[in-house]
Amino acid sequence: MKNSIKTLATWLIIGVIFIVLISSIFDSSNNKLAYSELIAKVDAGEVSEIEISADGTKAEVKLKNENIIKQVNIPSMYNLMDTLQESMKNGTVKVEEKSESIFMVILSLLTPFGILIIFLIFWFFFMNSGNQANGGSKTMSFGKSRARMLRTNR
User: Which helix (H) or strand (E) holds 135?
Assistant: First the structure.
């Protein structure tokens, strides 16, 4: 029973790692836009709306002639705002900031602790279980010697 749980847990971990690797490899670049392309499209008047993430490192761009929302990595927020200043005054580009929910902030703070707790539970229950059929773990049996004294009659 214990071996089947260990095997299942191992295969689940391998499966999750495999799915993450595959999704990162096949991440479609169809919805990506380079920062230089964004600046060129803003100057050409092809951008209708920009939604900036709460941390200011990414943005979602909606173009006037396409229905797809493209994602852009922003190297400098100050340079972007200087570039968008004229377009925002004219009303050709709408700029919004995406607010981050309090749930996501709490989750991002708890994630490292959660991973550590899961690892410790996995290690304690599955890897450190010892031989349960032979009297359990030998962790606290250091004072219980099984040696027998032999009595010799002289």
Answer: none
Of 80, 35, 42, 74, residue with least CA distance to 56:
74
Q: Give residue-wise pLDDT tens across range 39-69.
A: 888 888 888 888 888 788 888 888 888 877 8
In a domain, 63, yes or no: yes
The whole domain housing 85 covers 29-97
Residue pair 71/62 in contact (Cβ under 8 Å)? The answer is no
pTM over 0.70: no
Q: Could you tell me how many residues make up the chain? A: 154
The DSSP secondary-structure symbol of 32 reads B
27 vs 60: CA distance, rounded Å: 16
* 84 within domain boundaries: yes
pLDDT of residue 27: 64
With a cut of 50, list the residues of the chain below it in pLDDT: 131, 133
Give the residue among 25, 49, 22, 27 at the shortest CA–CA distance from 38.
49
- Read off the CATH number of the domain in which 46 is found: 3.30.720.210
Q: Does residue 92 lie within any of the structural domains?
A: yes
Residue 80, in any domain of the structure: yes
